[in-house]
């Protein structure tokens, strides 16, 4: 109780930023939320009402300058400034937990890793992670533990999907302008999981993707789709199948299966909101989580707590940062294949194989 | 193909009679439906249209007299004449498959058994069974096989329910006049299963029941209820819990659990119509069978085929007839307890223990 | 963040006491654990190591005397001293959250309520609750909300079970000496739920129970059983069916169904540990929570937070205290019926109807 | 009963041939099995024992010559002679039900359709179908009916898998020599379903596939794989994702999902052998069907009965024959892509687009 708490600031108070702020303010006992930044004054005002003692900043740089006791920054701003804000905090020696993706550009994503590699020489206890929330989910961890334990033999086929509930408001059309596309925005989680289950050093042999705009043809102006299927082929005899969609009727359907030579592990193939089943004149019904947060709230809280513990106790962070770059690279390649219709191939050291110009 | 087929008549062409007739006419390759009887001319006319070669009778006795090639009778008439029709066929040396219950009266039920015991001396190959359809259901058989194999240790607690979909037409109110009451009509199946799983020689120590009329208060005029709960205590440390209802919204919910000292087997605790799940804006939904026949159709067909095989091949019938009397006795005792509010106790040789008059 | 935290002490550091202490120490942001008591020095030592700033007491009375800043006490000691410790705290004007049951005796349970009714005149903001954890479970709350909303018509039949995993160590045999018996210890939760769903003012008409000792015959020396079935009949046409067991093979199986005139709500009828399914050579398998805490941990944490909020904000406590006495009364009547084999009846104002001596 | 029965012969008495023979012999009341052919004398001997009145032939041509009363032939021989035997029967004006695939070659498959188109001019009541058994499955039919009814809006994404239980005997390695490869052998069903759900006139835009040999590297010598993933892109904004495997641990896992713009239908995403769940010390377990027949037996029987009815009553056959050619074409293209690693594209009238030589 009396041990000092990690002094945390959150950059960005949008949908996820506000959630992170709340997790650190009230659900992470070893952390203390001391400051927030947002370019939106109304968001800062609301934060002030919710946590009167927390200091608020319109300017992230000012926050970094003023908050001399600061130890860690949670970057949860717009994706386009993730990398810039993360690097600034890294260079000050602060711990950083950055929302995914580091950037929609592999190069910019890499620059965060480079900055961290540089900085850690000076600040050897510094922790920087990119928040792939599913790695903190109890079910995914149980699945990974069993796989690592050899329960399914050699994991060989991976199938995973991130399928969002249809949002008829048109939000995703506007969002698509900067999201990097459906593979970078949605499937990035599935790609990260594939790397986690197949090994983070797995080398991609090829990617292919196809997609459609079944409900929101306007997405095409941003080179995006509302439903897409992708295949990732890895060297060493492993394959992954992805499905991403923004068209689900019932709610969030994020499911994953890992097929091994001796068994299979399925995560969330029977989605559910809770343990309630309703018996009605139309049959038996259960609800499912309406969105990503409804499914993974506990994982986000675990993430906040484990990141905090890792910073305070100087223990290894829960995941490698460079995996986040790899996931973005794969996501971008899938998105490119989705748009061009071409299969993209790589050699065994990860260099793209240029096919003949057609 | 060329071996002679069992020559079968069906008595009664109501809901279940017609189904039995169809099963024997087209889904029991080793049987041939040759005649039907019904007191309702329209039912006979319909049968004639469906099977032109089948002979029809308004009078069951005439059928027995005229059909000299007849080998087996399926009694599926009104419950009140089950016993009488069964006994007439038995006395002619015919095989009999009688719909449950033999009678709503234990004494009359017993008279069928007595007639059979008498008749079999003269016709040693004669088969008479009372159709407890669940014993022919693949899932119940799988459960019984596992239990008999010792998979759950000693079966000790049994819980089972027969819960019908609400029929707002008032059918059950009229039906209750002759049904023997909800425990004799619905729970008879669960009682038979309890005897099957605990052993047919199990001795009842006590029965208790309570009930309500939640949706059809008119049932009270026939001393019946629309929802009832019962407990059967057996000598030897075994207990059974029953629930019967005519109020289900979603469809037929017949579930059974057998708790043993080393495990439990559950049958149909997740009811379903088929393997389809519907993902809709209100969640995930599946339908369930609307009625008893929707759940047990395959079992009825198996019953027809196994009864036929037993008759043709002179192999032991699939179940003992005297169990049917025992089930009726228990059902009647539960029904009495339901109405009087008294617990009824029995000694170790099955005699009722009269409690002091209160 | 800066608002003062509820100053809490926990009495008892056994299995549940330690859990409560942890919930208040680290998972209840608005509370501060300041002191603990236990008659076991080793437990206090362990607490000191876990929370160096928390003060420890061998003597509960000393804790009450010394901790002048104390605002709330969590009573989680042995059941036999729940009431005494609760009353002492109540009389000091402290808020109290007492583990269930208040006592295994209805009279002693009532004495806690009486003390609270007396005390609240002097301390009108005082909160005293008995912790029925399931009322804080998200699934039960969802079920209750739907029922209260009329989604299933009139709730008429209630079926619930508390079934513990078999503990072959013999723990429960020793525990049975003071537990009040399986209906008071296990089914108390189901009884409380029945009252919650049917209305806390529901009047019991009769109770009946039977039971067996399938795995631990030694329980008989404490007048207890390892499997028991009970029926509660309420005035007004409502019935409840209970099953309690200490023999489950797979883990904790606590399920509840509420049958209404227009639908049914089922809670946890498909138990599961998490969202993982394992596909193995023997089929598809999932694990289930090993114990009560595995199933209800989140509910306990919610309970701690809501109790804290109610104390700090002087809002109504999440449940009425007198319901806890009623649940014990019903549990004791069921336990008596279990042992005597007699049905116990009550009149419409709750007085027991004495049947003729037999 | 007295109406004449369809006179049926079965060619081939291997695994599926024997099953078809049994279905027609005893589970298709309107059909009569009169003859069988097989090049294996032992199989004929066994058939003779099972059905003494059935005539047996080592030579299929002789069967066709001798059986003058023959009306229909079920071709269930080795895949390599499906087409030849089918065409011979077609040219005699017989009804034909041919096991899938017509051939592993699109051209040969087409020749069967051509023969039928020719023959039907002379025998206008002639029925020829290729047995895609899933179209007769109650769950798939329910799914299709709901989709056709508009329940899920516009079907846009299709995902389906045929995953066999691992057979460690090496059977599939030998079988792969003539099977046409995993996409032609297994996925042909999923492809047929895709055409059924998306419309049989759907035009393929591209196919891509990847695969591995996780458990049986010997398959490579026959240009086959034991796990493969494929994508089919259709003109008109529809995409399909396939997975085929011969590596499942638990049993047959054939699941299908159809994602529409307003909902999704899932078939068999929770596979099960029956309605039994086993509660054991390791959790809750259910078995699943061990093989394709275990899952689809009822569908095969329905197929036999509906084919028979269509022949006897001269009603439209349950499916179009040319779809079977289309499915083979798509399967062959996927298999080619699997082996070459190239995406294969088609123009809007189905002609393959040759990409630049690389």
Q: Which radius of gyration of chain A do the C-alpha atoms yield?
A: 21 Å
Distance between the termini of chain A: 66 Å
Assembly type of the chains comes to: homotetramer
In spatial order, strands of the major sheet of chain A run 12-11-7-10-9-8-15-16
CATH architecture of the largest domain in chain A: 2-Layer Sandwich
Our count of domains of chain A comes out at 2
The tally of helices of chain A reads 11
Unreliable residue stretches of chain A: none
Share of helix of chain A, binned: 25-40%
CATH third-level topology of the largest domain in chain A: Dihydrodipicolinate Reductase, domain 2
Helix and strand run of chain A? EHEHEHEHEHEHEHHHEEEEEEEHHEE
Largest sheet of chain A: 8 strands, mixed
CATH class division of the largest domain in chain A:
Alpha Beta
C-alpha geometry of chain A:
globular
Main interface: chain pair and counts: A-D, 41 and 41 residues
Percent range for β-strand residues of chain A: 25-35%
User: Any idea what the CATH superfamily of the largest domain in chain A is called?
Assistant: Dihydrodipicolinate Reductase, domain 2
Q: Quick check: average pLDDT of chain A?
A: 95
> How many beta strands in the DSSP annotation of chain A?
16
Structural class of chain A: alpha/beta
């Amino acid at each position: 109780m009396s041990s000092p708490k990690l002094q945390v600031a959150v950059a960005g108070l949008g949908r996820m930023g506000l959630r992170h702020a709340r997790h650190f303010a009230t659900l992470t006992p070893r952390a203390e939320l001391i400051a927030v930044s947002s370019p939106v004054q109304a968001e800062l005002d609301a934060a002030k009402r919710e946590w009167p003692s927390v200091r608020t900043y319109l300017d992230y740089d000012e926050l970094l300058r003023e908050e001399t006791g600061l130890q860690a920054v949670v970057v949860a701003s717009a994706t386009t400034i993730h990398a810039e804000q993360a690097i600034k905090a890294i260079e000050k020696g602060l711990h950083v937990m950055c929302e995914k993706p580091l950037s929609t550009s592999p190069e910019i994503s890499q620059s965060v890793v480079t900055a961290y590699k540089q900085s850690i020489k000076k600040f050897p206890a510094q922790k920087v992670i990119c928040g792939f929330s599913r790695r903190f989910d109890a079910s995914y961890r149980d699945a990974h533990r069993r796989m690592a334990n050899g329960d399914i033999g050699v994991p060989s086929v991976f199938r995973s999907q991130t399928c969002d509930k249809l949002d008829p408001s048109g939000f995703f059309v506007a969002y698509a302008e900067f999201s990097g596309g459906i593979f970078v925005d949605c499937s990035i989680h599935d790609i990260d999981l594939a790397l986690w289950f197949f090994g983070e050093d797995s080398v991609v042999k090829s990617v292919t993707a196809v997609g459609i705009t079944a409900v929101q043809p306007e997405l095409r102006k941003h080179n995006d789709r509302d439903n897409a299927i992708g295949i990732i082929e890895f060297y060493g005899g492993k394959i992954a199948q992805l499905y991403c969609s923004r068209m689900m009727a019932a709610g969030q359907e994020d499911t994953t299966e890992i097929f091994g030579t001796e068994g299979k592990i399925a995560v969330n193939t029977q989605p559910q909101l809770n343990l309630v089943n309703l018996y009605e004149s139309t049959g038996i019904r259960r609800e499912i989580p309406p969105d990503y947060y409804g499914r993974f709230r506990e994982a986000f809280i675990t993430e906040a707590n484990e990141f905090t513990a890792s910073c305070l106790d100087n223990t290894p962070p829960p995941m490698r940062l460079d995996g986040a770059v790899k996931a973005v690279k794969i996501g971008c390649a899938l998105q490119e294949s989705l748009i061009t219709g071409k299969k993209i191939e790589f050699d065994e050291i990860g260099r793209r194989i240029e096919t003949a110009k057609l």
